[in-house]
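Session log. Operator J.P. requested a structure for one protein chain; no other inputs attached. Running the standard single-chain path with token output.
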Amino acid sequence: MSALTIKTVEIHNFRTHKKLTESFPESAITHITGGNGAGKSSIVNAIPWALFGTRPAGVTKNLDLRREGTPKTTPTTVKVTYSVDNETYLATRTMNHRGTAQVTLEKIAPDGNTHHLAGPAVGDGTKAIIRTLGMGEDIFMNTVFFRQKETDRFINSKPEVRRDIIEQLTGITANSQALEECGIHRRINKRELDNKTVDRAGIESHRKTVATLSEQERKLAETLEAQRDTYRKLTAEKKVLTAQAKETRQNYLTLTTAKSNLENCEQRLKDAKARLKEAQEAAERVETRITNGEGVALDFTLVEAAYQQKLESLQEARVTQTTLENSIVQLTETVKQGESKLSSKENPYSTLKEAESSYKENEAQELELQEALRGLNERISIITQVKLPEAEHSYNEIANLSGTCPTCQQIIANKESVLKPLSETISALKEELTKKTEMHASATEKLAKARNASAVASSIIEAYQSVNEATTSLKDAKKKLTTAKRKYKKAEEEYNSALNVYNDVKEIENLTRELETQNQVKQTALSTIASLNDEITRVKEVIKSTPNITEHAVKTVEGKLATLDEKIAQNTTSGHSTSAEHSKVATEHAALATRLKQEEADAEAYASLLQEKESIHYAEATLKEFRKAVAATTIPRLTQFASELIAGFTNGAIIGITITEDFNILAHFATGETREVQLLSGGELSAVSLAIGLGIAKVFGGTTSALILDEAFTAYDPRNMDSTIKTIRSIMNAQQIIIIAHNDTVEAVADYRVEL
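Structure written below.
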């Protein structure tokens, strides 16, 4: 076995760990410690899962390995970096939320670059890992990975179970299975020999009968072949007669169809000549009308363009005339309204001059009144907002005073003499306010009248101006209307002239198109007549070249074909009879030949069974000798290594271990005492169990540099821990040891610590 070293373990969402990366130094003891449930065992259990897909004890399915709460989109991943014989590899196993796994293996070069070796298929990746390790899952779990419960299993098992374990590891189990299979084959061989008999005389008789049936089968085959030859001749004759009947039927059908087509074509030709005559007559009538109208034959495009131009001019003149008429109506109405307003009884002005003079006077009066109103507003504001409130405030303060004046600090003897002037002042201010308010109202009224008079005057002025402007515009519009009417009349005359020319030319164009249509009808009729004449000629040639086949001739050929069909049916019936007899003889011949072949095979098998009997006896003897040889060499080697280990573990207190022939286990003490394992203390039993487990690994696993011990020292005596580790290193050649233990003494001998 190659030297193995575990370098790193990287875990994502495995068991209790969401994310964890641990490195393990070479040639060192690594102690993994932590409280219960911290995930110590999960670290080392991740190694065999990544390499082989091995689940820890008690885990029944892969999905149980996913950390609880891991999202569906996040995979479970374990990466293990390991080295074998100075070559470094990276094994990666991933698993999705459905439990589907992938495995890849990469080789890591000294410069850190990676080279893909296998995967992602699980089978390919795992096989590649096994090739690089030089061991499979079973050997790894018995030579590299040790759990306390599994090492104790051998000690605590019954002797017969221990025998099975040793035999399974040594290959004796396979030997036993092979030996058992030999026994089974020997019994089967005897039973088959006892049941087999060989009838030599019967075999010879069957050979003669087979020869006779073979001759009968040959003669019937010749008769059947003759009948088949007759059938082939009759079918060939039928083929010729069928072709003849088909040809006769086809000629009859061709002749009948051609005569019908001839009648149809002659009728269609008659109809086409009639259409030609009608088209010729219609064309002559149109040509006559065109000739009569040649005096107006002009270019229709130019005539149409001239017609459109005159139509547009007429429409434009009509729009202009209508617009002017509407404008005259509006202006006339405006003049009437203005004159009515000027002649109204309410109008105080008889002339424009009077209205303008009144407007100027009223405008000047408005300015004076506005100025007076501004002065009144200022005085009223001073009285209401300043003087009157001040006088009323002073009056109220004095009226409310008693005793001393707040200003001069003199005693007020006569309050009424002080209040009377203030009261008179207040009354005067209120009287002035009343007068000013009345003056303000009068001025406001005068201002309103002045503004009204000004507005009336302004309205009159505007009315005079509007009437003058409307009158002027009305005179101008009437002049323009007269001109527009003359233009409209001229445009109307030009339009009517152009319309007459347009209609004449358009009629000629229509007649020309009608003539072209009739000419096309004539041409089509002539083409149809020519085509029908050709078709009639062709059909007459078909009638002429086709044999004059009658319906009677067709029935005669079909009668001959029916007679031939009867002969073929009779031949077929006879052939079926011969074929049935031939099949019967052939079946009997084949059955007897098969039986004969089986009898001959049985005779050969009997001889082979005799030879097999001798081979089985030889194999059984060989396997028994192999089992004795293996047992004689394996158990002593196992006890030797186990004894060396237990002596080192216990510092010589236990000097050896013996496994008896009946697979009982004995421990030999330095005191000379010998005990069965059932009588050992817990620490002694743990040491013996570990010694035997490592001894099995040494004997059956070869040389390894890595050991993983999961809780292997649970009941172990801490005093012997240092010597135990040294012994494991020396005897097992273990340069790298990874230990999971709660024992404080492991901490003392460890080179490196991982604490969770």
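Operator note: DSSP finds 14 helices and 14 strands in the chain.
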